[in-house]
């Protein structure tokens, strides 16, 4: 099934004005109807928690109310409907979005994707021994350089039964790329080569819900610029910046009013079906190659020479 990845996430929130400002400051563009989008049109849809149009909330009270995946074509949408109708209800709304539930109770949507191609260069790095990446006299960074989220990358769920949850997504063509022992898998749908668009974390039932979601940036420098600007606006860094081991992506996580963490990521590994999944024990040693700590700007001088 040619599922590309998440097109948008739907949240029912307690503080709608605060969440609007948060997503604007994060770098998403505000569109009509409280939709906040990245450069390719993927994004986040906000609603009041008690909005009657929302799917039922999880018993945990998670503010994530639905994950809507983009698929390549109508044939894929039909194949998903046929598979899900074997053992659960499915309905299609007036906009052509197919809705159902996964085995953990998360609301799922599927639509023919509306994401748009993004024609922007990635970060260029000059290094001895390699051909010149940046043209002469082109600087690698600037204080005013753009650092906008390019595409919705992945979502992470706390689930009470990671094995059962994985089996459900395997029915839809997701494959495991890597795994944390006794925790859960990183999953990639067949329509993308990104290391993962979904990560499942085994957790007690009362925690069922979203742990974090993230958008791809154009490179590590964009990630650091966006994160630094976010901190300067008063938002609280939770984890990072750093670089993960499984997936190799750079990361920087922040607390959010959406009831979960939000991340910037950059430079994720890409895999095809020849890739052999790795397995690692959970913990700090296997979660990141390195972890940096943000601090206010500093410069050497006679008063702080030591």
Q: Main sheet: which strands, in order across?
A: 17-10-11-12-9-13-16-15-14-18
* Percentage of residues in strands: 25-35%
Q: What is the overall silhouette?
A: globular
Number of domains: 1
Rg to the nearest angstrom? 20 Å
Summarize model confidence as the mean pLDDT: 96
Number of helices: 5
Q: Multimeric state of these chains? A: single chain
Q: Helical proportion?
A: 10-25%
Secondary-structure element pattern, one letter each: EHEEEEHEEEEHEEEEHEEEEHE
Q: Class by helix and strand content?
A: alpha+beta
The parts where pLDDT drops under 50 for at least 5 residues are none
CATH architecture: Roll
CATH topology: 2,3-Dihydroxybiphenyl 1,2-Dioxygenase, domain 1
Number of strands: 18
CATH homologous superfamily placement? 2,3-Dihydroxybiphenyl 1,2-Dioxygenase, domain 1
Largest sheet: 10 strands, mixed
- N-to-C CA distance: 59 Å
CATH class: Alpha Beta
Can you describe what's shown?
With 306 residues, this protein is an alpha+beta fold. The chain has one domain: 2,3-Dihydroxybiphenyl 1,2-Dioxygenase, domain 1, CATH 3.10.180.10. It contains 5 helices and 18 strands. A 10-stranded mixed beta sheet has the order 17-10-11-12-9-13-16-15-14-18. β3 and β4 form a beta hairpin. 39% of the residues are buried. The model has no long low-confidence stretch (mean pLDDT 96).
């Amino acid at each position: 099934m040619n599922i590309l990845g998440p097109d948008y996430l739907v949240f029912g929130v307690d503080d709608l004005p605060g969440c609007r400002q948060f997503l604007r400051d994060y770098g998403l563009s505000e569109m009509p109807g409280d939709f906040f989008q990245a450069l390719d049109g993927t994004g986040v849809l906000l609603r009041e928690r008690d909005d009657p149009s929302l799917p039922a909330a999880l018993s945990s009270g998670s503010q994530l109310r639905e994950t809507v995946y983009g698929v390549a074509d109508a044939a894929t949408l039909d194949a998903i409907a046929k598979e899900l109708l074997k053992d659960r209800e499915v309905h299609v709304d007036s906009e052509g979005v197919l809705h159902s539930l996964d085995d953990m109770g998360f609301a799922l949507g599927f639509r023919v994707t509306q994401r748009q191609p993004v024609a922007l260069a990635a970060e260029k790095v000059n290094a001895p021994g390699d051909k010149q990446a940046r043209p002469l006299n082109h600087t690698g960074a600037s204080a005013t350089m753009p650092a906008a989220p390019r595409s919705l990358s992945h979502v992470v769920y706390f689930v009470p039964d990671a094995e059962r949850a994985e089996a459900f997504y395997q029915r839809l063509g997701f494959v495991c790329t890597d795994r944390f022992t006794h925790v859960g898998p990183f999953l990639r749908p067949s329509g993308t080569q990104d290391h993962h668009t979904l990560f499942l974390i085994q957790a007690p039932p009362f925690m069922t819900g979203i742990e974090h979601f993230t958008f791809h940036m154009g490179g590590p420098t964009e990630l650091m610029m966006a994160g630094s600007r976010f901190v300067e606006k008063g938002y609280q860094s939770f984890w990072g910046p750093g670089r993960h081991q499984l997936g190799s992506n750079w990361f920087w996580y922040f607390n959010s009013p959406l009831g979960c963490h939000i991340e910037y990521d950059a430079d994720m590994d890409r895999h095809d079906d020849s890739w052999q999944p790795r397995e690692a024990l959970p913990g700090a040693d296997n979660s990141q190659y390195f972890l940096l700590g943000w601090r206010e700007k500093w410069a050497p001088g006679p008063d702080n020479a030591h």
